[in-house]
């Protein structure tokens, strides 16, 4: 996926609470798993475990190659949801469970849908929706999870 | 088996304890680290980089990506390297409870680590200048589990993040798997020639029981006998339970008996043994019972009451033991 396409995934105007319905699907996001991505995200999260940057030590520790750290998966799950909500989305809960590792030279396809919506907008003018998220790579599900995000109501863009 | 129980007990003692002292973030929440993060993640949300866009979206200023929470309190390269080196030297005593648990797991062979679950709840977005402090409690350590990555144990920590006012800004449940490298489904076990098979555990020899193992080396199944009253006894011990005499000698058993009870051990697996492993309580025709492995039969066909007879197997130059096979006659 080109850089232009990655940028295009982000929604520039805020999605509003009223625009969302249970069952809505999020625009899928394809993440090419380069070594650069795996290493730069590990270092950006200050995670210096060797299995996230050193293939030889990763192999000694029982992994076929370096693999993405959980903080980065968490970051990509958050990004996947806020790419959909635009700038007004405020994450309150990110619960993830990891499965197949994200090894280099694979691709993770992230998909998601709205599973629940609060009945009312809160006093801060925001309403909560719950999104279920899945990120699958060539080996299977890398991550499954649930994200709760607050969206501005229609009048408070 | 008692070794595993001891490890369970050791690990259980840490549950509910503070994982270590409160950790302050190395740096306050700051724009350069946020920039580094969003660039690595390919995130183009302007609320992380542009004050005006952030305010337009209803935030007081730029915010940190909420999922970046843990990055603010990571130990960083120098401290991680020191802790790692201390663990590898087995010097965990002066470090945190979490390091001690990690060290116990390392010593038990669970040397690899992978994070499996992370549940985060954010009370408010973090903004530059926020100073975080995190406290952590060891929530649970699981028993041994067979996973796709390998045989391991799950360690769960519960963390609370507070700001400079002491207010809770986020909570997190974090679970890792510590596992034995090379024991997973995805990788074949090391070739036997590459790693010689480990020996069976050594018996703890005493002046009362060494006759049994010496006898086994000569192909004899010996039973302890009280020379005062003639009662037979097993397992070996110093005194007769019938007459309290300390005087004893041994008699050789015929090696014939029946299966009084048995279990089939599938797991946890110790490399020196073949699985499934039939472990039986054998009642000898002389009347004493002993625990031994059963061979020459599939686990499905072992039955209580089955007639068996002893053969002797030399597992290594130091260890010979009786193994019971279905009786031939």
Description:
- The complex is a heterodimer of chains A (157) and B (329).
- Chain A has 157 residues and is of the alpha+beta class.
- Chain A has one domain: Roll (Thiol Ester Dehydrase, Chain A).
- Chain A has helices spanning 3-8, 35-44, 55-60, 70-85; strands at 29-33, 90-98, 106-117, 126-137, 140-152.
- The longest helix of chain A is centred in the middle third of the chain and has 16 residues, at 70-85.
- Residues 1-5 of chain A have low confidence and may be disordered.
- In chain B, the strands form three sheets. In chain B, strands 1, 2, 3, 4, 5 and 6 form a six-stranded antiparallel β-sheet that branches.
- Chain B has helices spanning 2-12, 31-41, 51-56, 76-88, 97-107, 210-217; strands at residues 23-24, 112-122, 133-141, 145-146, 151-162, 168-179, 222-226, 232-233, 248-252, 256-265, 277-284, 289-294, 307-316, 319-326.
- The two termini of chain B are 35 Å apart.
- Chain B is elongated, with a radius of gyration of 30 Å.
- Chain B is α+β, with helices and mostly antiparallel strands and 329 residues long.
- Chains A and B meet through helix 2, helix 4 and strand 2 of A and helix 2, helix 3, helix 4 and strand 2 of B.
